[in-house]
Specification:
By secondary structure, this protein is α/β, with parallel strands linked by helices. The protein has 17 helices and 15 strands. α5 packs antiparallel against α11, α13 (430-444) packs parallel to α14 and α16 (520-532) packs across α17.
């Protein structure tokens, strides 16, 4: 319920704060006093468009804040879905800056307008005489039927099963599309893979081949120099090795004088061994080098193939080509296995569809069972609300499964004798819509935790006994729900547990709107004015007391 409302710098309201009551709250006041301004402020809390033109003082920001007791609304899960802290006393605030930019907060957490609308829609329900769009909606009508059936748990189970089915259907469609795309590319991918596989690429071979080609193309120069090195190390008059042998002999003769010389001798001997090994390797290498045009051509052909493949695939190494080959292989294998994936996805889709269908059929059965009872309840209420010739019929037809189930159900209505019921949007006037909406909300009031309901002059065009009946219906609804009624009828105003008076204050330089709660004496006078005008007679006063049930 809405427990407090604070409005600052909005339209004709400079600043007001009001505590609100449980049950039926009546709002009355002169035409143009600001009742619609209150609704506009509440509309901001519901995510309606904000405008800097709404500011009372253009140099200050506007603030509208509502405090709600939501302890019985079962909204904790919704708050978690929206990543909001849940508190039993929920604060919703909307601010409009001087430049017209708006911000919204829930429990002091900034939120976007979509989140604000999602949350506030569960807290406030404003119904005006001209609010016909909602009742004309097939989904809204189906929601009413589900509430009357007590289908909340079954509907939740179906919704989850339907979402699971839609996900599996999406997976199946994606695999089908992927399969079609892959199969279009299969021949080309197979050609690329075969080309790479045939090349039998090996990691590191490019560097090895380029080195080998470089040596073979300069074979004569390399062989001559290697031979010269071998000669200098072994065969020359002053060869490197013979010189080292002499050094080794000399240092050996000194080793007896010092351990240091012995250590040098060991190092020189190691150098001799290493140089002999190097000399032998150079000699062997020289023997292997021969100028071979055929070998050179073969290496060039292999490198040419590698370079061509690198250019084709826009890479710079053999390792990258090997990775591409591996990826192509996996893709080709996946294409070959797609039929199995498609079959598995189709089976999952059909299984999840059947599970959802079973729940949808249970929903449908429950809905069809309530139709006759709903018809009778609504017709009785409408007749008591001054529509003796009202006829109403809830139609049913089956549909393909959607997020609501497998039913198409519509409320058909006629207010006139001899006229066949038709869709609401085609036949109901504003006053008829108002009474039908009141009847619908009346019969579902005991079924669910409705949000705060605000009826904005829903009694337009109604008087006498019918207005008394409407007031009693609102009062009865308000036993379990907070209800606000903006009314001009004393019969309805008298049914309220609390009454608030909206008025204009012209005492300052600029007119402002304000609101205050009336005490018992003030209520008597206000209702008497509603009966007999600004100067109510004793009879009007007496009638007001009678309506209020006071002496």
């Amino acid at each position: 319920m809405l427990s407090k409302l604070f409005i600052k710098n909005y339209a004709l309201i400079k600043s007001l704060e009001i505590s609100l009551s449980e049950g039926l709250n009546i709002i009355t006041g002169e035409t143009g006093a600001g009742k619609s301004i209150l609704l506009g402020a509440l509309g901001l809390l519901m995510g309606n468009r904000a405008d800097s033109k709404s500011l009372y003082d253009e140099n200050e920001k506007c603030i509208v804040e509502g405090e709600f007791d939501i302890s019985g609304y079962g909204l904790k899960e919704l708050f978690e879905e929206e990543s909001l802290d849940y508190e039993a006393n929920c604060l919703i605030r909307r601010e409009i800056s001087i430049g017209g930019k708006s911000r919204a907060f829930i429990n002091d957490t900034p939120v976007n307008l979509d989140t604000l609308k999602t949350i506030s829609a569960r807290l406030i329900d404003i119904h005006s005489q001209h609010d016909t769009l909602l009742l004309g909606s097939a989904n809204y009508q189906l929601d009413i039927i589900d509430i009357l059936c007590g289908n909340a748990s079954l509907k939740k189970d179906f919704s989850e099963a339907y979402k699971t089915y839609k996900k599996s259907e999406e997976v199946y469609k994606n695999i089908i599309q992927e399969s079609a795309s892959f199969k279009k590319e299969y021949d080309f991918d197979k050609f690329l893979f075969d080309e790479l596989e045939k090349a039998k690429l090996e990691s590191g071979e490019q560097d090895s081949l380029e080195t080998e080609l470089n040596i073979n193309e300069h074979a004569e120069e390399v062989k001559i120099k290697l031979s010269e090195i071998t000669f200098l190390m072994n065969s020359a008059d002053q060869s490197v090795l013979s010189g080292l042998y002499s050094v080794s002999n000399l240092i050996s003769s000194l080793s007896k004088f010092s351990e240091k010389y012995n250590s040098l001798k060991i190092r020189i001997e190691s150098a001799v061994i290493e140089l002999k090994d190097i000399s032998g390797e150079i000699e062997s290498e020289a023997e292997t080098i021969h100028y071979d045009p055929q070998k050179i051509e073969k290496i060039k052909d292999r490198l040419g193939l590698i370079y061509t493949l690198q250019k084709k695939h826009n890479v710079k190494s053999v390792d990258e080509l090997i990775q591409i080959e591996s990826a192509l292989q996996l893709k080709l294998e996946k294409i070959l296995n797609l039929d199995e994936e498609i079959e598995s996805a189709l089976k999952k889709k059909e299984e999840t569809y059947q599970k959802a269908l079973v729940l949808a059929e249970s929903l449908s059965s429950s809905r069809r069972n309530i139709v006759r009872e709903m018809d009778e309840m609504l017709i009785d209420l409408l007749r008591s609300l001054g529509m003796p010739n009202a006829s109403l019929k809830v139609t049913h037809s089956s549909s393909a499964m959607n997020s609501s189930g497998i039913d198409e159900m519509r409320i058909l209505f006629s207010a006139n004798k001899g006229s066949n019921p038709q869709e609401l949007k085609n036949v109901a006037s504003g006053g008829e819509f108002s009474r039908l909406m009141l009847a619908l909300k009346y019969i579902i009031a005991d079924k669910i935790a409705l949000p705060t309901i605000i009826f904005d002059e829903i009694d337009t065009g109604v008087s006498g006994e019918i207005s008394i009946k409407m007031g009693k219906m609102m009062k009865e609804m308000a036993r379990n729900h907070q209800v606000f009624a903006i009314t001009h009828l004393p019969q309805i105003a008298s049914q309220g547990a609390s009454q608030y008076f909206v008025y204009k204050d012209d005492s300052a330089d600029r007119t402002i709107s304000n609101i205050r709660q009336l005490n018992e004496e003030e209520r008597i006078v206000e209702i008497a004015k509603m009966i007999g005008g600004e100067q109510p007679s004793a009879i009007a006063i007496s009638n007001a007391k009678e309506l209020l049930g006071v002496n």
